[in-house]
Amino acid sequence: MADTYKNVRIPGSNDIVYKDECIYSFDNPESENGLFICMSTFRGLGKDHVARHCKANPGKNVFLHILRRRKPIPIDSNIEQPKVTKLAIGIEGGFDPNGTKRFTFEEKYSIYIHPNVIIAYPDENDKLPEHVQQSAQAIITAESAFLKEERTLMNATWNGEIRQKTKHAHTLVQLNNGKKIPPSGWKCEHCDLKDNLWLNLTDGEILCGRKFYDGSGGNNHAIDHYDKTKYPLAVKLGTITAKGGDVYSYDEDDMVEDPNLAEHLSHWGINMMNMEKTDQSMADLEIEINQKYGEASMIEEANSKLKPVHGAGYTGMKNLGNSCYINSSMQVLFTIKDFQEKYYKHCDFYFDKAKDPIHDFNTQTAKLAFGLLSGLYSRELPDGGDASFRPPSNIRPQMFRTLVGRGHPEFGTKQQQDAAEFIEYFMEQVHKHCLSDPTPDACLDPSTCFQFQLEERIYCPETSQVRYTTREDSMFRISVPIDASKNMHEVLQYNKTKEELEKQGKKTNDLPIVRPIIPLTQSIARWAEPEIINDFKIKRNEPNTTIRKTQRFLTFPDYLFVQLKKYTYNDDWTPRKLDVSMEIPDEIDLNSLRAKGFQHGETPMPDDDEPIAQTTTKSNEEINEVLLQQLMDMGFSIEACKKALLTTGNNNIEAAMNWVFEHQSDPDFNEPYKASNTSLPPIIDEESIALVMSMGFSRPHATRALTMTNNSVEAAADWALNNPENDSALHILVDSLPQSSPAHHVTKTTHFRDGNGKYRLVAFISHIGNTTACGHYVAHILKDGRWVIFNDETVAISEHPPKDLAYLYLYKRTAS
After folding, report:
1. 649 or 22, which is more confident?
2. The domain 452-604: what is its CATH number?
3. What are the UBP-type domain coordinates in residue numbering (predicted)?
4. Fold (CATH) for 318-381+389-449
């Protein structure tokens, strides 16, 4: 038996112990057959994958078997339940989708030697060598791989309870004006509001707070008072208890801790020990708005009695903390046959081929496919009993999220992200691995089912000449034309009524929301309209002219993602979402938008003989006028705005804004842009290329992005995400660039599927919140002739699918 245990190791501090879940499936210690942890590699295996592991790792066939079961624990009603302090789901301090924990775990252990030896642990320790016992105990007490990752990612999540001590704690001036504040019955001294009231700790004024983005809150009288007096601290009435209260520092612009709050309150006759909490804290308010924001109840169908549905293709996904953008995206993608064929049908192929399953993209994607589509993790619970005492009927996509997000500055954190950006990033990864990794079917690349080509036609009325260019994309991005609203009169009346109520200091929460109703067909029509571009330079040695640009589809993909451009910025640069109700047809016909190519009788424009690599830096006259105006509206000079756009690629407002913020203190910030006099673009260093490639972009794509953004890695990442690769122009540019060292180029070969332009709606992803960087995502999918809602762990038949409020729509090509 000595040889049997020769490969057993005791895990050290640098070893990662995967004892939460199987590396190939979602079996875990609570599963029917428990989890087997290899005592050599410390990888977790479900029962069905133990033999696979032993075959791939000869001599490493000794496992610690963990079987875990839930046991009810009594609830003490006198113990205060944990407070929600984070605007997040499924993380410590955030919303608990499973409610308060009312159980503990009991675990049973044994040593399993494949294929047929079982030794009880610790009951039969006399049959085990000392180092095997030590290994088992070390595995049991070790911090799990999932827990280590959670601790790392939690650092990126906001905590509503962490506040800095105010600098005014010991120096605050308090006026002796004879005021005494009663313990209740307060109202704003400038209006009639009786909640969201703040007591200024310097002069004792009671004033209403700020107005929130959904119309709730106050009338800004407290902040207006500070602007006039510069009295810095205010405490929110109704939040004061013996433990403290919500204190805001206006000049520090944050919620703060006032260690002398009891003394400051006593000046106004308030005894903290006698105060009870009667109003919501700021964290409470933000969380409530997050829960009750107008569209949230509609998107989540909160007012419907949802009927759960179970089985293959109806598996919920646990929210790992702001991971709903991943959950909703992957639920939609794995309803597509291409993804099912690639990763579910051939999952055993990827499992067998993987040398390092935990860090293998195909293996972890196939694992997710198996979890969602097998039906093993979506079983209907028997009637009777408490469901909380049973193992969860959903999957936890922890390994998948860790692998896909590794090295990415956004998807590698626990912050909320844009689902559209994630889908495009994931498609890049799929395509990359289809090109480079072993595959059972070389022709099967699911990412190509979204790819299409667009034809851009430039027409010069002055010369009647035309120029045709081609670009590729994977999403049909269209704007939301507010002026095309079908109910403009009602919207204007609603806005007028709301404004009048606000002037009177009255709340507008109870005012029924009237959203502009905009047909999707109008958005598509606007996309198809000619765009007038002034000051366009056809050739560098000729004067500027006005041209008309139109775009049409060269190819129609099998699946068309439609992304609504609903997110914009206010005049003060704060992000906002257009609150509209879209009129979404179940079927659309885009055949009229098919490109026709060069037509008989058309005269082509002469090509500019300037190298493509210099087209974005040759002149400060070739500016995206729309983006230029947006930047200038923020108060920056025209020269600074031109410089920001030209430096960051001339097509991305966010990248340009970031450049402005970083360089506004530069001495030449407002000086005219000076193009390089050299005939070649600057050398792009290998380190920058590697950094951009680590985010999932190909070498040509990364090189072009860095060239377009003057070798700025951050701006290049933004540019690359918003500019999918274009083979013809891309490789001409890359081949013309000087290299800091020899390198092998990665060639992207895209097969464009084409067919008729008729589509039927099969899924949509909705977003709750003011920006894509916060809030919550929910997916609705048409399955078996009925709409189903996928809201993280919840999978149920949809009663009222909110098609009008979605952000992304997925259309499938119809047969005719």
Report:
1. 22
2. 3.90.70.10
3. 164-272
4. Cathepsin B; Chain A (3.90.70)
